[in-house]
Amino acid sequence: MKLYSGPLSLFTAKVRVALDEKRLACELVSVPFSRAGGYQPKHPDVLAINPKGQVPVLVDGPVALYDSTIILEYLEDRHPEPPLYPRDVAERARCRQLEAAADEILFPLVFELISEVFYKAGDARDAQRIAGARAAIGAHYDGLEQRLGDRPWLCGEFSVADIGYALTITFAANLGVPLGDAHPRLQAWYGRVIARPSVTKELTGLAGAMERATA
Ligand SMILES: N[C@@H](CCC(=O)N[C@@H](CS)C(=O)NCC(=O)O)C(=O)O
C-alpha cells in the first residue's frame, strides 16, 4: 500500500494511526507543503486520483481512494482485525457519525484558527473570528463531555471516533483551545487515547513537522 500524506495533515494522521493500530505496512509519500505556500504545488499522483487535489490518498493495488473517512472504512473492510468500528449495527452507525462530526463540525472551527493563527502574522489576525471559533470549540467540548459520560471510549471499544476526535482536539489545543476544568472525563479519555503507541508516535511526528514548518 502507498499513502500520499501531508506532514501536518490531520486527515492523513487519522489514516496513519489506523494503519498502525492494524499493523499494516504502508509506504508513505509526503506531498509538498509549506506554511507560505500551503499544499502547492500539488503532487501529480494526488491530482490524478483525487479531483479535490487533497491528501490523504491511499493506493492499494488496483484500488485508489481519497477522503480519510472512506479510506478508514476500506481498511476496516479489507483488514477487519483488530476492529476500529463497533460490530453492532446501531453502535457502528453512531461511531461513523461521530467520526464524521469531528471532521465536519469540529474541524471547520479549528480550521478558522489555523487560517488566522497558523497562516497569518500577529497583526493581520482577526481577533473576533478567533474568539468566536474558540467559544464554539469550547461549546463542542461541553457536548462531547456529556456524550462520553463514564465510558472509557466514545463508542464501546477504541474506534475511529476516538482517533478522529483526539487528533482534532490536539490541533485545537495547539491553537489555544485545550480541554479545560469543565471537561474532566474528556481529559481522562484524551489521556487514554494519546497513551496508545499508535497515537503517541503520530503526535511525536506531528510535533516535529510543526517545528520544521514554523522554523
Ligand atoms: N475530507 C477530506 C479532507 C482532506 C483535506 O482537507 N486535506 C488537506 C490536508 S489536511 C489538503 O490536502 N488540503 C489541500 C487542499 O485542500 O488543496 C478527508 O477527510 O480526507
Describe the structure.
The chain is of the alpha+beta class and 215 residues long. The protein has 2 domains: 2-78, 3-Layer(aba) Sandwich (Glutaredoxin), CATH 3.40.30.10; 89-196, Glutathione S-transferase Yfyf (Class Pi), Chain A, domain 2, CATH 1.20.1050.10. Helix content is 58%, strand content 7%. It has 8 helices and 4 strands, in the order βαβαββαααααα. The chain has a 4-stranded mixed beta sheet, covered by helices on one side. α1 (10-21) packs parallel to α3, α1 crosses α6 and α4 (89-118) runs antiparallel to α5 (127-148). The chain is globular and about 50 Å long. The two termini are 32 Å apart. Glutathione binds at residues 6, 9-11, 39, 53-56, 67-69, 103. The site of glutathione has 13 residues, from α1 and α3.
Quick structural summary:
The protein has 215 residues and is of the alpha+beta class. It has helices spanning 10-21, 44-49, 68-78, 89-118, 127-148, 160-174, 184-194, 197-214; strands spanning 2-5, 27-30, 57-60, 63-66.
